[in-house]
Write the structure tokens for this entry.
Amino acid sequence: METKAVAKPLMMAMAGNPNVGKSELFNAITAGHAWVGNWPGVTVEKKMGRARMGDLEVEIVDLPGIYGLTAYSVDELVARDHIVKEKPDVVIDVINATSLERNLYLTISLLEMGANVVVALNMIDLAEKKGLKIDAQRLSSLLGIPVVPTVAIERRGVEQLRRAVLEAAENPRRNVEIVDYGRDMEEAIAKLSSTLETLGSVEGYEPRWLAIKLLEGDPEVEKIVGEGSVLAEASEMRRRLEDKLGSLEDYIIGKRYEAASRITSLSASLLEAAKAGVTLTDIFDEVLTHKVIGIPAALAVLYLIFRIAFEVSAPLVDLIDVTVNGWLHDATLMLAIPTWISSLLADGIIAGVGAVLVFLPTIYFFFLGLSFLEDVGYMSRLAFLVDRAMHLFKLSGKSVIPLIIGFGCNVPAVMAARAIEDENDRKTTALVSPLASCSARLPVYLVIGGALFGVYAGAAALSMYVIGIVLALLMAVFFRKVMFRGPSSGFIMELPPYLRPRTRSVLFKAWERTEKFLRKAGTIIFSVAVIIWLLSVTGPGGYLGPEALGSPALLEGSWVGALGHAVEPVFAPMNWDWRAAAALVFGFLAKEVVVGTMGVLYGGGGGTLMAKLASAFTPISGFAYMLFVLVYVPCVATIGVIKSELGAKYAAIALVYELVLAYVVALMAMGAGALLGV
Amino acid sequence: MIVSWLRVFSATLGSLYFIVALLSIYNWASETLSIGTGPVISEFAPGDLGMFIIYLAVGLSLLVAAFSKPDEMRRVAFMLVGSLLGTAALIVQLLVAIAGLADMYVLAMAGEEAEFSLALELVRAEVILGIPALIALKFAFSKARALGVRF
């Protein structure tokens, strides 16, 4: 073992159902030494980390949250492939102790694959509170593997888990025969296993697992085995067994659940006092999942989050504005350095990045609210509430999760669609989720809304979120009727018990998400701000100098002016000037850049950006501009993810349909404004 | 049983929230679409669609708690959620008021003048009705405990 550790780090994988505290445990073990990449071939986020355990260097991969190891969803396939192909030395299976039986299904699936599993029996404190007493030692002996009770959020049991992992790496324990499938099935498994052991193509795979998967008819495993005669033999066995047992897939799932149920009943007991009675979760769900009252209650909760994000963050927003865009900007211009350098710093970088940076508190507070709702357990209720409505729009209830995630960022929203099993639902959801208004668009709404709508700026911004969702639903109907015909799939979702949110977890999640925004401001927006400054102080006629930023006539002769003028006629029906048009072009890189560009193009020459926007737009042309920003092409990163998830054809479709839709919606807003005489 | 005075309390508070919801939607329509004779006590019931939904959700929940079928657990559930939402709206409004005050100082530091009235922030319905909602929340929790609800 020691020789192995010196040769290469110990490889570990962390598996578990969604919402079991896997990320907290991963962070506790790696102590923040983590990085993010992609799984090969797909754009599924791969989180990796490094830790020291005793004298050993350990590399940990955080697998996606999954319920089983089928080939139906990309997440499950990715997790399965990693365990089968990379063969981690130890797999830590994080189990939610409050839902032991359901979580054991994945444990059993992992054991059948031949993985060397250590169970982290997480949330043991909550289980005890619910009156559930779990005998970890008994559970360990029934499963044949180590079981360590943990409370990841409080770092309880983490040291014991580390020790158990090291011990398991030294003395691997596997228990592939955890499920007894009955005489007929076991005979078939044994026969197929011995045939598979002789096949070179499946060397390194657990033959019993392959045999079970072949009998299930798993298409991915059939591809791995490849050998026609073995596949024919398995098919013949399946046919014979199905005559006797019914659908083998259902039979196998049933047997695994039977095993999970038996192990649960032998290792856990519910205290007498906990058997009867209603829980606080039951009480809240009576109202919050109520088909009538549940909807206004949900909207009320979301609006309170919006108030916190927009109004409570206001002093921090103004503090950054005053400091960065006021004091720092002016102080930089007064530095005794060449004018072009002070202009690049003040009018380029500070104006561009600062225009976006001021929204950092709003975005942090927004994510704080979302993380709070997630940790409390309300987000799944929201999905449950809208399920029926989603079916009206030919979508699965699961589609609401990507749409909600899209409020934060469209990239993970498109990726979240991969958890939807039905191909048509998945593609439709991935294509429409960029219409959920991401946090990058928020600065545009706030700056234009603030300039044109005064006290109604918040309402104007909120209307973008509503319109985005309405458009997403309408486009979903369009796609399902034109491109992806067929019924939408059913919706199975666990409603976890409501939990008291842990301050550290909520703050950390919110910061993790905000940090991405901050990183963008520091990289993409910084670079674009420099490029825009350069394109503003130079033009077809040569160097114009920083004076161009303060002189509209000079600025029109710059490269940005030329670009803006080139696209301006397209937007003439909306009465947007060339600067607004140029900002849209640069916004294709990232939507935050729209405000950054405006900060540079409208910023020079004294007066605030809002005052200049108030004179450049009318309320209706400003509203149409907000609509266009909401709908038009998603950022480069989102297009990239759509290409990876669905292919180049669908990325092109997303690009074109959103451009056309944005234009039509903006035109309609102008038309409506003209009709109403606004 | 939810004692009758608690039902009366829930019914009264629910009705008040419901009336404020109607006022709020009227004020919104009046300010946005120029319908009617102009806003009515809009300092108390702001013409805001979002606030209309909050007042409505709280009002309906408390009214259901008072008038639904004789199912105690159901009544407690609606009273608990309604008063919790009312309390949350109160807390958020207090935070908004504090933020407004802080914002005024930040802008003053920068030499800008900002209009802000703490009194106006505190006479809004979610503050005035939020205090009895907080009391209702306390009663609802006590009642839930008495009914054997596991926390």
Remarks:
- The helical segments of chain B are 4-33, 49-67, 72-109, 118-122, 125-128, 130-146.
- Residues 4-146 of chain B form one domain.
- The radius of gyration of chain B is 18 Å.
- The interface with chain A takes residues 32, 48-51, 53-54, 56-58, 60-61, 64, 73-74, 76-78, 80-82, 85, 88-89, 92, 95-96, 99-100, 102-103, 105-107, 109-110, 144, 147-151 of chain B (CB under 8 Å).
